[in-house]
Design goal:
With 181 residues, the protein is α+β, with helices and mostly antiparallel strands. It has 4 helices and 9 strands.
């Protein structure tokens, strides 16, 4: 599915935008990051521009899946894959190579939860990460997610009422957005 809403916020003297992505947003860094994520992406080495265009088109026509991106100005720096089930959503996060370590994970997790709550009435969120992915786990924890460790996987849960807004966010606006299809 796609939504015609965009979340705009100021943070660290930069303009951030969170919205549904289209195949026009795909760039080389996006493809390289997907190809390098061998742990979570099936057949990651086979990811191409063409395969991602097809994937995004399928997401747009789905009733229960959403693919959103976090942009700094016009630069796509991270994505979230969201699967909806009633008032629950599972969130998968991918912060692009060269964009890690600056709090982008925390910002995109918060954005995904905020966006799903206000545009899709989602109340509860679920995510998972390998126990070795400390940066991801800390990003979810910073947004208020509760953690449960199962062997080598950490399950993370959040009710929207517990969502913590990153203190770096200075202002929030919502706009309509028109996509080039």
């Amino acid at each position: 599915m796609y939504l015609n809403k965009i979340l705009n916020f100021k943070c660290k003297d930069k303009d951030f935008f969170y919205r549904t992505i289209s195949y026009h947003d795909i760039n080389d860094r996006y493809i390289r990051t997907l190809q390098g994520d061998l742990e979570y992406i099936e057949n990651a080495s086979n990811v191409t521009l063409s395969s991602q265009e097809t994937y995004i088109n399928n997401i747009w026509h789905s009733k229960f899946n959403l693919l959103c991106g976090l942009f700094i100005d016009d630069d796509l720096v991270a994505t979230t894959g969201i699967k909806l089930c009633g008032n629950f959503a599972t969130i998968g996060v991918l912060v692009f190579d060269g964009c890690r370590g600056g709090g982008i994970g925390k910002l995109i997790i918060w954005s995904a939860c905020y966006y799903c709550k206000y545009f899709l009435a989602v109340e509860n969120f679920l995510a998972g990460a390998n126990v070795k992915n400390i940066a991801s786990v800390k990003s979810f924890e910073a947004c208020g997610f509760n953690l449960k460790i199962y062997s080598d996987i950490i399950q993370m849960r959040l009710n929207f009422s517990s969502l913590l807004m990153p203190k770096e966010i200075l202002s929030i606006k919502v706009h309509d957005y028109v996509y080039d299809k």
